[in-house]
């Protein structure tokens, strides 16, 4: 039910944006883009297909994961946001590459760019929380199967992941707002009249971006740490959990790659990066590579979360059905030993 409505809203939005972008253009529409731009368009289209597929599979998983629906609801929100980002990326390219446009539709492009940024940052935050809740579920299940010998997680850990979640969203939205404000002033010629303000605002946006990146990468490292200690506890207690294996051997490598990609491209786009990255062609090529590689990581993380949810037997520990009892019932002590 949610997916068709979302797609309808996105299609309606795209129609409005395209119509708005062509109101000042009496010559019609014709798409013409450079090879690099066509590659970026292909990347966005492929990402749209796969994020849509993961969203649909998540709806199926939601019907099969009783007691873990919060995890998969958070995951669904993340996929819908990332899907919205991909669709908006396609719209952005089609608007930007209308050769009949008499002038660039700045407002429409800025709106699309803002949506892309916010959906990416907030979507990542929800994906992080879905991952954390899944690991928490497995920690509790392993502890139950081991007769309570592992013990509950440190009471400070929830504070950490909630702080990372809220901090990522807050900093992500603030960074996107200030970034779009800077781009708007740049495109509309504000800095031509106030040249001294450009360097100051650019530095401010970069600092916000680095702060957000720090939160995002810290969240990724936190996930890797949480997976490591939970898997180590599983091995120590001689418990076999398929879900933890999905997390360790599928999700963790993609999460590690995502952190590395973030750091690498942050350096490439920084003032100390190669000069080629500052040119229009170089920036486009690096941005396309960043989009493609990072989305592969997000899709890989998504599949690692989805696969256990599609088959109920994945939640059994040592093949014992009682170990797949929902987490809420374990905490309430409703499971007989």
TrEMBL record:
Residues 1-19 form the signal peptide. The chain crosses the membrane at residues 43-63, 70-95, 115-136, 157-178, 219-239, 246-272, 292-311. The keyword Signal applies. The keyword Membrane applies. Coiled coil: none annotated. Keywords: Membrane, Signal, Transmembrane, Transmembrane helix. It comes from the Eukaryota. This is Family A G protein-coupled receptor-like protein. It comes from Schizopora paradoxa.
């Amino acid at each position: 039910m949610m997916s068709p409505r979302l797609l309808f809203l996105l299609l309606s939005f795209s129609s409005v944006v395209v119509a708005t972008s062509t109101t000042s253009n009496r010559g019609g529409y014709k798409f013409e883009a450079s090879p690099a731009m066509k590659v970026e368009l292909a990347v966005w289209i492929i990402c749209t297909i796969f994020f849509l597929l993961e969203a649909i599979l998540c709806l199926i998983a939601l019907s099969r994961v009783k007691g873990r629906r919060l995890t998969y609801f958070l995951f669904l929100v993340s996929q819908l946001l990332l899907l919205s980002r991909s669709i908006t990326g396609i719209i952005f390219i089609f608007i930007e590459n209308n050769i009949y446009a008499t002038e660039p539709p700045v407002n429409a492009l800025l709106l699309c760019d803002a949506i892309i940024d916010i959906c990416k940052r907030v979507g990542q935050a929800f994906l992080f929380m879905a991952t954390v809740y899944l690991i928490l579920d497995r920690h509790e299940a392993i502890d139950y199967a081991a007769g309570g010998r592992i013990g509950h997680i440190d009471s400070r850990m929830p504070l950490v992941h909630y702080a990372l979640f809220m901090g990522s969203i807050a900093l992500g939205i603030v960074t996107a707002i200030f970034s779009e404000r800077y781009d708007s002033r740049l495109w509309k010629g504000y800095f031509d009249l106030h040249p001294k303000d450009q360097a100051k605002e650019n530095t401010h946006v970069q600092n916000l971006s680095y702060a957000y990146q720090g939160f995002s990468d810290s969240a990724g490292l936190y996930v890797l740490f949480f997976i490591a200690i939970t898997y180590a506890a599983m091995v120590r207690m001689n418990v076999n959990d398929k879900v933890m294996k999905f997390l360790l051997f599928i999700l963790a490598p993609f999460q590690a790659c995502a952190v590395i990609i973030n750091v690498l491209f942050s350096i490439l786009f920084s003032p100390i990066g190669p000069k080629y990255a500052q040119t229009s062609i170089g920036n486009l090529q690096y941005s396309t590579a960043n989009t493609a590689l990072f989305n592969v990581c997000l899709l890989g993380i998504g599949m690692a979360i989805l696969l256990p949810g599609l088959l109920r037997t994945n939640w059994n520990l040592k093949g014992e059905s009682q170990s797949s009892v929902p987490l809420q019932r374990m905490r309430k002590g409703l499971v007989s030993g």
